Every structure is written in C-alpha cells, then in structure tokens.
Prior knowledge:
The structure holds 2 protein chains of 2 kinds.
Chain A: E1 8-9, E2 12-13, H1 22-36, H2 39-51, E3 59-61, H3 63-69, E4 73-78, H4 88-101, E5 106-111, H5 115-127, E6 130-136, H6 137-142, H7 144-152, E7 156-160, H8 167-180, E8 185-187, H9 198-206, H10 208-221, E9 227-231, H11 236-242, E10 252-260, H12 271-274, E11 276-280, E12 283-287, H13 312-320, E13 323-329, H14 330-344, H15 350-364, E14 371-376, H16 384-395
Parallel strand pairs in A: 4-14, 5-6, 5-8, 6-7, 9-10, 9-14, 10-13
Antiparallel strand pairs in A: 1-2, 3-4, 11-12
Helix pairs in contact in A: 2-4, 3-14, 4-5, 4-9, 5-7, 9-11, 10-11, 14-15
Chain B: H1 3-9, E1 15-21, H2 27-39, E2 44-48, H3 59-70, H4 75-86, E3 93-96, H5 99-105, H6 107-116, E4 119-123, H7 133-141, E5 145-147, E6 149-150, H8 156-165, E7 170-173, H9 189-199, E8 204-207, H10 213-220, E9 225-228, H11 230-238, H12 243-258
Amino acid sequence: MQPDNKGYFGSFGGQYVPETLIPALDELAGAYEKYKNDSFFQAELARLNTSYSGRPTPLYPASRLTLRCGGGRILLKREDLTHTGAHKINNALGQGLLAKQMGKKRIVAETGAGQHGVATAAVCAMLGLECVVYMGSEDIKRQALNVTRMKLMGARVIPVATGSCTLKDAINEAIRYWITNVSTSHYLLGSVVGPHPYPRIVRDFQSVIGIEARQQMLECDGRLPDYVVACVGGGSNAMGIFHAFLPDEAVKLVGVEAAGKGVESGHHGATLNAGSPGILHGSKSYLLQDSNGQVSATHSISAGLDYPGVGPEHSYLKDSGRVKYVSADDAQALEGFKMLSSTEGIIPALETAHAIFTATRLASNMGRNEVVLVCLSGRGDKDMEIATPYLEVESE
Amino acid sequence: MNKIDRVFNKKGSKALVGYITTGYPDVDTTLKAVPVMVENGCDIIELGIPFSDPIGDGPVIQQASYHALQNGINMEKCFEAASALSGQIDAPLVFMSYFNPVLHYGIERFACSAASAGISGLIVPDLPPGESLELRKACRSCDIHLIYMLSPNSTPERIRLVAQNAGGFIYLVTITGVTGARRSFPPELPALIEHIKAATQVPLCAGFGISTPAQVKTMASITDGVIFGSRLIQLIDEDPSLKKAGQFIRSLKEALDGA
C-alpha cells in the first residue's frame, strides 16, 4: 500500500518534527516523486545494484538446516552476499543517488549495528559525498569492526553518549545535526522509520528483496512460499521482503522482534509485541514507553534490533493482521546463529539469527512439501566478538 | 482574556520569555527559580516538561531533561509545580512539551489538567500545524493558546499556515538548529520577520541561541519579544543561590527595555 498524502499508513506515520525540517521533508518528497519514475535515475540505480552491490542476490535452499528441522523446506534470500554484507546497501545506494540528484554535498546517517553506517560510508565514498555517521557509544564498543570499516572508507564516526547510548540516541543526534545543516545535508535514514516520506522511500528501495525473491520462487519452485520470515528492529529488511508478497494472501508473513532477556523481563526490543502507539523520531507508530510517555530503555544481544520504535507500516500491518509479529530472545537468537553456521557454513548476523530461529521452529511443524522463506538480511562477521563468550562457555 | 494576550496588549512594551526545565535539578529549584525570573523581568514563563528524546534541544536542555527525569519528574509533578506557581505569580505560564507525553496522557485530559493548573499556553516543538488539529481544538476549549513555530527556512506557504492557526504568539526560531547559545544569526532574519508581520497580527517572539543583552537588544528591535533558556539553566548550575540567574535576567530585561 501507499501512505496517504500526509504520510499515514492507516493511523500510523505522519510528520512529527520541528518546523525547521518541514521544508527539507517537502524537498525530499518532491525529489523522490520526480526520480522514482525517472528512467535515467532508475537505470542508474539498477546498474549500480548489479555492478556495485552484486544484485540479484541468490535464493539458497538450506538443505542441511531443513534436514535438521525435519519438516518444511527452508530457503534463504541471501542479502548477506551483497556488498558490505547486509541489505542496508539497497537503501543507502538509492538514497545516496537521490541526494546526489538533489545537489546535497554531505550525508548524515545513524547506525546501530554499524551495517547501515558501513553501507552509507561505502556509497558516499563511491559517489564522492562527505559522510558523517552518528553511533551510540555502547554500539561503538560492541561493533568495533564496523567503526574501523566506516573510517577506512572516509566517514567521520561521531560517538553519541546520551540516553541509552544506542541506536535511538544516534537517531536523535543525527536529526539534530540535520536540523542544523538542513540546506547542505541529506539525512540518509537507514530504516523504515522516521517522518514521511522516509518510511515509504526506504521501503521502496528495499522492496527489491521481495520482488527478486518472489520471482525466484516462481522460477525455481513454480510456487510461492507458505511463510516469509524476517527480523524486525526498525523493520527495513522485513518491509523489503514482505512488500512484494502483501497481495498474496496465502503467503503468511512473520516478523520476528528481539525479546532480549524475555519480554516479561522488561529488557527487550519487542515493540510490536509489547508496545503501544506513540511518537518517536517523527512518526506515530508502536513504541516501548513507560506510564508517563517516556521512551523505554531496550535490550537486545543484537544492536540492530535494540530499538524502542518500529516503522509505521509495520504497525499498520500488525493491526490489520496481515503480518504476524512474534519474538525470539537472546538465547534463541544464539541458537539460530549456531545452527545455521554449523549446518550450512553461513554465519548470519545476530539480528538475522532471530529470524533463523523462528523459521526453524516453524519448519519443524510443517509438512515436507511446505516452504519457509527467510530473509538472510546480513552476515555475522561483525558479531564474532559478541558471540564468542557464549560459544566458549558452552564448549568448556 | 488569556493572560498571554494581556502581556502583549500593554502598549509599547516587549515581552521577555524565560524557559526553565521543570524539575531540574529538582522541583524545589523550579519553584524557587520561577519567582526570581519574574522579579527580575520575565513577562512569560515557559515551563519545560522533560522528555527522554528531545530532538529539538541542544546539549544543555538535553542534560537538564535527562537529570530531571532521573530525579523523578513526571507529568503529574509538572502539573503540581504549575499549579503552585500560578497561585503565586501573575505572569502567564506556558508549557513546553514534546508530543509523546501529551499524547500518552490523553490530548483532552492534558489540556484540561493544564488549564486547571493555570497554564495559558502550550509549545510542542515536534508538532507542526498539519498534525495539530486535535490538540488545537482541545486547547481552544480550555482557553490555552497553542503556540506554533517558524524558522529561517520557512516558506511563504508555511508562514501562511502558521499565521492562520496561531494564538498567543508565534515562536520564531532564529537559527536552523537546536536550542543553545550561538554567536550570530542568519542575515535573512529581518526580511523573514517583515514577511511574517505582513501575514499576521499575532505577536512574534524570537528564541534559540539568545544568551546576551546585545542579542536581546537586536532581536527585540524587530520582534515583540525574546525567549531565552539554555543560558539560564547553566547559571542555575553555576550558582544554586540563583543570584547569577537573577542578575542575568535583569541584564536581558534592561536590554529589552532599551530596544
């Protein structure tokens, strides 16, 4: 679906931002309307998607993982094989090209796990744009490798030591930077969150995942999957793979949030499972908040899912019932992480591992001729340091 | 008549608007500081309701909000503080809150409670006119002015939209940026102010970045009032006896009267 003219998906979305940003959002919406149907722009995006990012990404039948689960077939959409190692490049490339067309010289971005920051830094280097990335000081600690990658590609990485020192605070700071440098900078927001038109723009650039996967399913299997599963933090890889399947009513869509130490513990990032409608980062959507409307602290083993908000279109899809949102906790994510690594030789990102775990549970209860398609949104090299202590404990 | 209108109806005088974060470092300080602000020349008091994610604010107010929340401030305590102050001072009180705490409290319930606490105006920095219909209605029925903002990059259409819906005063953000002291202001400001003045009779107050008597004088000469905040918070930190804060406000008031 498309948002209405005020940027709402049902009752979620909108533009809850300081007045200073309204002209910039209008400018962005205008530019996007112009270039989304511009054949030159689309040809350039398609060319770079192929030659720079490595698209289309393959659809991989995970036979040994399937065998282990003893049920439905598990297929993986390999976004981990894109340049920079995650689906984030799809959006960074699209918005980078758009910013260039708009005559912007500088890009500001936020990053949680660092994957969006790395993708943005890469695109900026390639397009000759200046790049500033805000990253929570807590995330800088747990994703040190990605910080080095961003710096190597010429980005300035600025630590954010306010609030919870994670993704939420990095977005706050990136928005403040944008307010201050609004005429010269483009804010390259990395998920389907934020004020209109961001949720729509990011989804559109990510929708290539689902468009390819749907076609690949039909070509290889002559059928559509029974389930499509993706992890949800802000929700960009999930929107990307879900979007093409929304009209296919027989295809069940499942989003997996981070249950952290357990939803009942209060230390989690399961916004759609445990939140209520509110306003954060410019749009109305489900939100983890306390009884005074203050935004709650979150926890997840994966920095990319450690976020109290979620994209407004997901909130709409939850309420409409089209997508079912479940959660997997830290331990379950680690189980998915190990299982995919050992059965297939594919190390997924810890974010993605939440979806892997849920998919294996689903597959176990499915018939052999049923299919579950998982968005393998990113690779796990960045997470080795976090995962190592857990792996060592178990081998002792 | 709404108390804010009374301030601007006094012929020839300009308004000094002072912002303070409610509950920073504690509610007692707020209750002591506001009378000092009024005694030294503030015509309107802006009481900030702390929010966990203040995207329009610079480091000083971010820190103040964070610490106030750590020290247990919440919506009910903000209402209690406003109530206590409105019984004590005659200057109008304006709440400044991000939208989520208001939405969570309930829009109508918030407007009613604020009015009962003696609040005359409301500033919601992340609620542009296009999203504000419900809150505007609720405020109107409680005789609270919903105060809108304009910024240096506001287009003629935005100025028209704000002019159509404005009440109390229009908050002109003097810089494209967040709150906090600045050295200079954009050169296009006087032309913008002329444009706004041509579009509406609603008084115009300039805020963001203002921290010196010289800046107050410059801004007051082309607007109906001046808003300050971050510097006051710093002075409350520097001197908890509030002497420095009082002197600072007095110096701004003198600059304002001389403009």
